[in-house]
Known about the structure:
By secondary structure, the protein is an alpha/beta fold.
Amino acid sequence: MDRFAITDAILLLGDKLSCKTGLSLIISSGKVAGITDGDLPSDLDRISLPHHLLVPRFVNAHTHIDDSIIKDVGLGMDAWDLVMPPAGMRHKAMEASSREAIREAMRETMEFMMMSGTGAFADFRSQGRTGCEDLRKAAEGLPIKPVIFGRLTIPSGYSERDFVETGKGLTPEQRQELDELLEVAEGFSLVSALDFTDGALAEIRSVVRDRGKLLALHAAEHPRYREISIRRTGVSDVTRILRHLEPDFVVHLTDANEAELDAIADASLPVVLCHRMHSICGYGVPPLLSLLQRQSSVSLGTDNVFLTSPNMLSEGAYVSRLWRGITSDAGAISHDEILAMMTLNGASALKLSDGIGSLAVGKDASFIVFDLATKNLSGTKDPKAALINRAETSDIAAVVARGIEVVGRIGNSQRTPIV
């Protein structure tokens, strides 16, 4: 069926993710061709889905899926010693793994992400152009979109004096590597602004923008970010990022202060937060409510697979419980806010919202079908509340990508997924 309608389901529609019943979703050539409460053409194939909820596929706005190969290594260690390159245990363990094994592990992770509802994800990929090509290879044939942010392998090598003078840019070798990885990646990611002088940050911004690519990085993840940045340059990493780099989004901000959060909001800079990863690392709690109060656009990510599963249902449920608990306020955050962080906001940050992030006419017919008659969800009176606070991966009846079932079945056809 290239053109068909889904009837009798509960739909989460539009940018407000409004919960609607009594409507038919018309799908044609992989797109949402219409949403109607009227009569359907008699010759239009129909799939009736009573007691099912249709939700836009999730967008995981920050991952490192290459470390899928070393799951649970170093749990309980000091996180700085565990994850920071080049000497962190994570990086040493990765260096001991073959490219083939890493590709296989990444593919398995992407298959799990598909099964748990994710349709696109932003991956900060190490190992330069080779790493980007390996992720692209691992994703071949899978109906999930990796948005790859490459990273340089050549060390920055700046002296403390270079940071004071700030004018020294990239070396010719670094510039060449940046050009080469941007040929195969959607964007460029820095570990942090600590590795580059102000002049190099400005040069990176210029190169990436000239190529029409995305730019992102970790920021204010840990108190040491501020300590090192101030020692070297006199200002925090957040200040330097806003002055010299102007990225498309920043990740973490767990250690950002009120003035920095104000500056982030004033710059309308989207933010990605990774609550479960920062909890397991002992980094603290990202400033979600402070960002929402400032009307910043916030998305959710799951970060490193080796310590946190890339399951957006788990991430949303954790965020919901965490903030209600630490504020002693059951109304501290809404289902609508969390759902937006799992779907539309991430799509917007990754410049994908023309096609995904919500169910609307003209967008991709890509969605998750939750069975509200499972033993877990049966009897729910609030599908949105159930989605955030109760739903499990086992409640997913099907995942549809551009009108094609890629997990489970909603009809009787046996079709090849569109990638």
